[in-house]
TrEMBL record:
Active site: 9, 83
Gene3D superfamilies: Phosphoglycerate mutase-like
InterPro entries linked: His_Pase_superF_clade-1 (IPR013078), His_PPase_superfam (IPR029033), PGM_Phosphatase (IPR050275)
GO cellular component term of the entry, any: cytoplasm
Domain of life of the source: Bacteria
Entry's Gene Ontology molecular function annotations: phosphatase activity
Protein's name in the database: Phosphoglycerate mutase
Binding annotation for substrate: 8-15, 58
Gene name of the record: gpmB
Xref: PANTHER family: BROAD-SPECIFICITY PHOSPHATASE YOR283W-RELATED, HISTIDINE PHOSPHATASE FAMILY PROTEIN-RELATED
């Protein structure tokens, strides 16, 4: 059985402002650093073999804090689990999108990465990591939208109606080529 812990990065200033981040290379804010330390402390009581991260700063910073606490080196920075490209809406708030493109902005071609493309990209990357480390326990630090879409591909029919919270952990396992989810969007480490 291969176990993967999927972690969304800690909070950023743009998270708080409601701005679409996409590929913008933002850093964690002070709260995000504290959240990363909290998930790192939680994970220190568990056995993990590898940690991978998206190549964007906010995920990488989160992964570095976790890796340091667990005594692991980051095994790789992977563009395949980078956040979805937000096209022309990157850096904007909902209010700014409404002002610029009107209430039907979601129906316009603004260069956003399609959910289906993100599902394929993310689930393929996670699957490749699992194939590289069969029977191991692997952490992957990434982003909310790409993780959401990756899970749609890996665990079809899973209830994903709740958006992933900053530094939440979702634990999936693969047995005989089939993925299942035993823990979703858990942030109990933020409430200690």
């Amino acid at each position: 059985m291969t176990t993967i812990g999927l972690i969304r990065h800690g909070s950023t200033y743009w998270n708080k402002e409601g701005r679409a981040q996409g590929h913008t290379d933002n850093t964690l804010d002070e709260e995000g650093l504290q959240q990363a330390a909290a998930i790192a402390e939680r994970l220190s009581g568990e056995a993990w073999d590898f940690i991978y991260s998206s190549d964007l700063k906010r995920a990488r910073q989160t992964a570095e804090i976790i890796a340091s606490r667990l005594g692991l080196d980051i095994a790789g920075l992977l563009p395949g689990i980078r956040e979805m490209n937000a096209g022309q809406i990157e850096g904007t708030t909902e209010k700014e999108r409404l002002a610029r493109w009107g209430s039907a902005w979601k129906s316009l071609d603004l260069g956003l990465e399609a959910p289906e493309a993100a599902q394929l990209r993310g689930s393929r990357t996670i699957g490749e990591i699992a194939m590289k480390h069969p029977g191991q326990r692997i952490l992957i630090v990434s982003h909310g939208a790409i993780l959401h879409n990756s899970l749609r591909g890996l665990v079809p029919g899973m209830d994903l109606s709740e958006l992933l919270k900053n530094t939440s952990i979702t634990r999936i396992t693969q047995t005989d080529g089939v993925w299942s989810c035993g823990l979703y969007n858990c942030v109990e480490h933020l409430h200690l």
